[in-house]
Amino acid sequence: MGRKLLAMDLDGTAVCDDYSMGKRSREAIEKARKLGHVIVFVSGRRDVDMLTMGGDQWCVDYHILNNGGKILRCRDKEVLYNDLIEPEACRKLIEHCLNEKLQLQICSGMTWQVTCMTDRTMEYAKEVGVMPEVFDSLDATSWKEGLEGFMATRDWKPVAEYIDQNLPELYYVNSEPECIDIMAAGVSKWKGIEILAKRLGISSKDIIAAGNYYNDIDMLRHAAVGIAVANSLDPVKENADYITKNDNNHDAVAEIINKMLKEEFG
Q1: 174 CB contacts (<8 Å, ≥6 apart)?
Q2: How many CA atoms lie within 13 A of 72 on its CB side?
Q3: Whether 23 contacts 222, CB under 8 Å
Q4: Angle 167-156-230 (CA atoms, 0-180°, nearest 5)?
Q5: What pTM value is reported for the model?
Q6: For residues 227 and 241, is the Cβ–Cβ distance under 8 A?
Q7: Over the stretch 126-164, which tens digit does the pLDDT of each residue have?
């Protein structure tokens, strides 16, 4: 059996609804890594979002964050790849949202800023343990350096419409209901996986991907084996080669890894 790269979405896939990881899943990840396989979390999360895992985020080899825009090596926290949004596109989007009083969140590294606070954002901030900075002017941001990405929740529809009409340099995807992640055009989870696999010398035939939501479909289609966990949306299941018996709250990861190690995916 050759070395495999197992790329797993986080929320709704590798972690429980409370952001924790099951004991069996952690043990399975450790076993696979000891056998030389590469285990990767692939997520729409930014660095600050990873704090909800309380340290479990470091149980894998790599993080592919920002829906594929950023690759981080876990053992030394080195950033291997980071596709930033060009400054001018950042400026236009931020200015528009400030002028129209739309909620926009800047998510870049450990920077988390919002144009205005909402109950939903406040609730999430309590879960993360970090309070975002509210800003009301372009000068209060680091747009001139380029940014990793944005997020829109309350006003995601008008923000998406503005991007569609004015900013071809940007790409957005629904990462959960009533929420869009905004990245540089061309970013995708599969592209991030490809970049990492090439760096590690792993063939596409040895890539397994698992997910549960719309932004996971592309990587499930392109991987040698695409896996939908039991709680996945129907369109995700329709694009999968295998559907787990267990859901994200009942160690779907352990099921996937055990089948991988037994070479049951072909």
Answers
A1: 180, 213, 214, 215
A2: 22
A3: no
A4: 110
A5: 0.94
A6: yes
A7: 999 999 999 999 999 999 999 999 999 999 999 999 999
